[in-house]
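Contributing new records

If you add data, match the layout below exactly. Sequence lines come first and carry their own label; structure lines follow with theirs. Keep one chain per record. Anything else will be rejected by the validation script.
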Amino acid sequence: MATGDRLRAQLLWPVEARLAALLPDLLVFRKPRASEPELATAQGVLLGVHVTGFTALMDRFSLTCKSERDMDKLAHIFSYYISDIVEHVLCFGGDILNITGNVLLALWTVEQNQLSDIITLVAKCSLEIQEKFGIYHTREGQDLQLQIGLSAGRISQVIVGDEQRQYLLVIGRNVDDVQLAQRLAQANEIVLSWNCWMLCEQYMFEVEIMKEYEAVKLRDMRITDPFDFDEHFDKCLDYLPHYRTSADTLRTALELDPDSALKQTLRKHIMKNLLKKIDVGQPMEYISEFRTVTMVLVSLEFHQTAWMLHLCHLIQEAASYISRVIEKGGGQLSRIFMFEKGCMFLCVFGFPGDKKPDECAHALESSFSIFNFCWENLAETKLVSISITNGPVFCGMVGAVARHEYTVIGPKVSLVARMITAYPGLVSCDEVTYLRSMLPTYNFKKLPEKMMKNISNPGKMYEYLGHKRCIMFGKRHLVRERNENHPLLDREKELETFRMAQQGCLHQKKGQAILYEGGKGYGKSQLLAEINLLAQKEGHR
């Protein structure tokens, strides 16, 4: 079936199937528990795929595109590329846990005595992915390439959140290992973690040992007869209870009978603006677009002494507070990521239906509140870092018809991640956020320039110091100085009020007070600068 036909056919799916297409089998088939956070442990093999070159391609389009048609073209390039990879993983029985920007994470959950067979299966899947999709030449001259990492062993799954919104996380050493293996892999390479190498049938692989990193680079597999692997593939399918049973679909999850309880459970894992579009039957392919958003990335590093269950409760407490504060300011907590030392929370202001003119100011003020809360209330917290950027990004569906996710991708997404490393322990923002917030300059401190990986020109950076009062009485300077070459326009009524009060003060010797009231960005500072200039011309302070 052609892609367009499949997309149209999706409109005929029941709501449960449309929700399931946005979520992994790990959530669709799980047995809910009474308490939050939920923590479960299983054995499995993890596959991580990173698409390199897409951020650079985005940057080229952002500089040269002249219409929405050009932007739509870029969305299709990436969506169709990722779609092929996702479908290949599904054909091999993998469960797509998430598609985060240009990174895909898949899991095969099995018993411990089945790990070696499944590692062989996933290794074969990885080699085929590199062979078929390892390099994609775009007409714009920017190649898309793949870095693949594998790990295997015990994996913990935790669900955090509340009755309205929940998030699935996979945590543990082997999750860290797949991320490391993925980073160690160069373009068109596959790297296995050391534990994965110890658990596999080593005689079947041609490898290069990376002693310095305790990892293994996979070169090829020793399969002389294709029928040998077909037999192995059929054997592995017995280990995967949710593998597709029909040739018409890639996932059993899409063929479940209508279930109101399941529908309510799945809805908790999807953002509210996306649920609205599903409820009205909007086709998924019409949701993708370029739009300007403000992103907040919260990074929490924990002390290594924190044990896992306690760590889950810390993440639960942080997620609840962050979600509440962000939503109050008009944003949404989009994703939670785990990394070796802690976790990250990606929040977005400006999704469809949430756009506000003062989102940069809300993002800064929300971030400062989160920063203080995490330091003061979360035990075992070693470091809190928050970064904020504003700019155009790709917002929309990425993946295949059977499994896709709503995500954000672009240079500003890369920048917000690099800022966390460059400016730890601070609430930092880029120059665009600083300017568009329209907040007083004394609430910020300019930060020193730093080199950031794959960011050629990050621009000026600022630390947000929180909302402060600037006492002006007895000072000779103002927040904003009047530029004599740029006179103030359309403020005659306000200036006339000042002149009348000034005359009353000088001639009648009576004290006068004027209150100018207006929202953020209405020009109060510019008005005071103009008044200051008028008074100084007449010799008054």
